[in-house]
């Protein structure tokens, strides 16, 4: 029954959807409108959003209250080009196919706040710190296509060669959303005019959801495209009489359901939470400022709440109801520097290192990584006058992916981002920020004896926010 398990796993397997935002595998680093227009904020000492980017630098804000409220609208396409000789059996008989998943998050709000008094600064942040979008694959995926393509061979085996179909067709749909909500709280202390430190923590709450179906699975029986459900049902009866394993019977049952109009359906939710400490450091001297931060790994599990069709059958067990799985948020180290070349012009650089290989993932998936994620950031800001300023930034992201880590529903590819925007000082206490950044992704190629795939993406983010101080 290994062939049955292979087909069903290909048809119904799911994994976490990756973020539509900037950052690591699970972490969002674009937490404010300023990020889109400047990007390198690791050493910034202005704006309440430094509660996230440079929390030790909050001591450099003026005494009183400071708030930043931002909204980001992110839109992404995930593109997979696949070619396989097995696709010759499909209705369109195209050996080269393109699969597009659309991910959108039009409303992603975030709020940062700081209260500074004397040598102390209390700060907090509420934002979507991981994930941040919903991805929809209306026309299926190569992994599902390959599963359906093996059904004719499976039928030939189940009928001992009496039937040898060569064609297949199936309706596929898959949708998933992945959100990690973060609430951060901490305090900074000014040791002297040059040095300050920070200590705090972040509560992370995970909310994932997956929905999908496989319907109208057909193959050419007697020269006519028809459902193979009857063949699978007969095989189920024979297996039950032979006391075959319940797992094998359930797998065949799902294939039988896929051959019906109502289909085999998946509806699964995951939830969990964890807390991790955060420490920070800031150094200032003349026109130079340096900021650093270390976020410890957030150890957490997610619990499945799964419903697969309305029959009570348990399917593959990959998302067994009530089962817990690892979903750690990797530790993160950031450091950056900002230098005021002129009173109107400042330049900034930053660096991020995500400790991906040390984070526990479902079924030990982190062991398939070849390395950690590294990011390099650059930004420049110019004050036109007391009211207007403009800025631009760039970010280079390099993942430590391995072929075995990538999957059709969860893949990460190297990229670079370019952002620009500006701000308007409406008054001494109110500033409005707007920004836009675009991400260009590399191609990631995987070649096997049965299928060749190329993964890539397209991404754009619009942001707007308001800073208020009093």
Alpha carbon gyration radius: 26 Å
Helix share of residues? 10-25%
- Strands of the biggest beta sheet: in what spatial order? 1-2-3-4-5-7-8-11-12-13-14-15-16-18
What share of the residues does DSSP label as strand, in percent? over 45%
Number of DSSP-assigned strands: 18
What overall form do the CA principal axes indicate? elongated
* Total of helices: 7
Spans with pLDDT under 50 lasting ≥5 residues? none
SSE blueprint and pairings:
Blueprint (H helix, E strand, L loop, with lengths): L1 H11 L20 H6 L11 H4 L10 E20 L12 E22 L2 E18 L4 H8 L1 H8 L9 E23 L4 E27 L2 E3 L2 H13 L4 H13 L5 E22 L2 E8 L5 E8 L15 E3 L5 E9 L4 E10 L18 E11 L4 E11 L16 E11 L4 E12 L2 E4 L4 E18 L1
Antiparallel strand pairs: 1-2, 1-18, 2-3, 3-4, 4-5, 5-6, 5-7, 7-8, 7-9, 8-11, 9-10, 11-12, 12-13, 13-14, 14-15, 15-16, 16-18, 17-18
Helix pairs in contact: 1-4, 6-7
What does this structure look like?
With 470 residues, the chain is mainly β. Helix content is 13%, strand content 51%. Strands 1-2-3-4-5-7-8-11-12-13-14-15-16-18 form a 14-stranded antiparallel β-barrel. The N and C termini lie far apart (69 Å). The mean pLDDT is 89.
Entry keywords:
470 residues, mainly beta, 14-stranded antiparallel beta barrel, 7 helices, 18 strands, 13% helix
């Amino acid at each position: 029954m290994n062939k049955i398990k292979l087909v069903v796993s290909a048809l119904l397997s799911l994994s976490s959807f990756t973020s539509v935002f900037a950052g690591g595998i699970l972490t969002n680093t674009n937490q404010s409108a300023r990020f889109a227009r400047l990007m390198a904020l690791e050493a910034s000492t202005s704006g309440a959003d430094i509660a996230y980017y440079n929390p030790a630098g909050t001591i450099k804000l003026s005494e009183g209250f400071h708030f930043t409220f931002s909204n980001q609208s992110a839109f992404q396409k995930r593109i997979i080009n696949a070619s396989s000789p097995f696709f010759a059996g499909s209705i369109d008989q195209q050996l080269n196919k393109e699969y597009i998943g659309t991910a959108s998050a039009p409303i992603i709000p975030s709020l940062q706040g700081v209260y500074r008094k004397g040598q102390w600064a209390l700060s907090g942040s509420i934002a979507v710190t991981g994930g941040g979008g919903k991805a929809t694959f209306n026309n299926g995926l190569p992994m599902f296509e390959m599963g359906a393509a093996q059904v004719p061979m499976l039928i030939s085996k189940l009928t001992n060669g009496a039937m040898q179909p060569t064609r297949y067709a199936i309706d596929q749909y898959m949708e998933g959303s992945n959100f990690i909500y973060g609430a951060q709280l901490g305090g900074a202390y000014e040791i002297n005019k040059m040095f300050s430190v920070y200590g705090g923590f972040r509560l992370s709450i995970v909310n994932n959801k997956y929905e999908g179906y496989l319907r109208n699975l057909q193959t050419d029986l007697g020269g006519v495209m028809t459902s193979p459900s009857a063949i699978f049902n007969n095989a189920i009866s024979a297996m039950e009489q032979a006391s075959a394993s319940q797992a094998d019977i359930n797998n065949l049952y799902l294939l039988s359901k896929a051959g019906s109009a109502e289909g085999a359906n998946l509806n699964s939710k995951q939830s969990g939470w964890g807390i991790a400490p955060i420490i920070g450091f800031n150094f200032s001297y003349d026109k130079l400022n340096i900021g650093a931060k270390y976020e410890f790994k957030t150890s957490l599990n997610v619990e499945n709440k799964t419903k697969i069709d309305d029959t009570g059958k348990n399917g593959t067990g990959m998302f067994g109801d009530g089962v817990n799985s690892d979903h750690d948020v990797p530790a993160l180290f950031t450091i950056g520097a900002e230098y005021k070349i002129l009173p109107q012009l400042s330049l900034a650089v930053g660096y991020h290192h995500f400790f991906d290989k040390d984070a526990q993932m479902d079924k030990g998936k982190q062991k398939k990584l070849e390395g950690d994620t590294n990011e390099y950031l650059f930004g420049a800001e110019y004050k036109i006058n007391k009211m207007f300023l403009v800025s631009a930034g760039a970010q280079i992201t390099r993942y430590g992916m391995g072929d075995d880590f990538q999957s059709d529903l969860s893949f990460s590819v190297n990229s670079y981002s370019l952002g620009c925007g500006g701000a308007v000082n409406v008054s001494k206490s109110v500033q409005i920020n707007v920004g836009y950044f675009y991400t260009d992704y590399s191609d990631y190629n995987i070649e096997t004896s049965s299928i060749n795939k190329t993964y890539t993406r397209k991404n754009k983010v619009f942001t707007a926010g308001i800073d208020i101080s009093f």
